[in-house]
Specification:
Blueprint lengths: L1 H25 L12 E11 L6 E6 L8 E6 L3 H6 L12 E8 L6 E9 L5 E3 L10 H6 L1
Parallel strand pairs: 3-5
Antiparallel strand pairs: 1-2, 1-4, 2-3, 4-5, 5-6
Length: 144
């Protein structure tokens, strides 16, 4: 009886450890973005997906200055991280005219990571660095 309880306890411990590491392994890297390049997009917000795990802004790049014209998908961090940084789901809305600076995808497809977005009508700018969440001592930095 004692050995079967020991086996159950050991198995439970292993399953618990495996379950605890799953969320870490499930998160993807940001290496798909070329951090050496910054491209400007000038156009209209077509969609905003305020969903986990990452918010996405779809911008119709009409100007084609430095970036190919057409629909671009811009990735941000999670809604929770954006809210903690001062964003709301209504800061950027479909129909807004914007200028966005992005780090493009390395594979050349029309997508990237947001560096800064500026609303043309108001001149208000918003930033968020998706890599901030990967820095060590992040809580200490925000606590200052």
């Amino acid at each position: 009886m004692k050995s079967s309880l020991t086996k159950v306890a050991a198995l439970s411990t292993l399953l618990g450890l495996a379950a605890a590491t799953y969320p870490v392994a499930a998160h993807h890297s940001t290496t798909m973005f070329d951090r050496e390049k910054t491209l400007p997009l000038v156009g209209t917000v077509k969609e905003l997906h305020w969903t986990n795990p990452h918010v996405a802004i779809f911008i119709d790049n009409s100007a084609g200055q430095g970036a190919a014209p057409g629909l671009w998908v811009i990735e941000l961090t999670s809604p929770g991280n954006l809210v903690r940084s001062g964003w709301t789901r209504t800061i950027v809305k479909p129909g807004d005219k914007v200028t966005a600076d992005i780090h493009p995808l390395r594979d050349g497809t029309k997508g990237g990571a947001l560096r800064k977005i500026t609303l043309t009508d108001t001149g208000q700018s918003y930033t968020y660095n998706i890599r901030d969440q990967e820095r060590p001592n992040l809580e200490q930095d925000y606590g200052k």
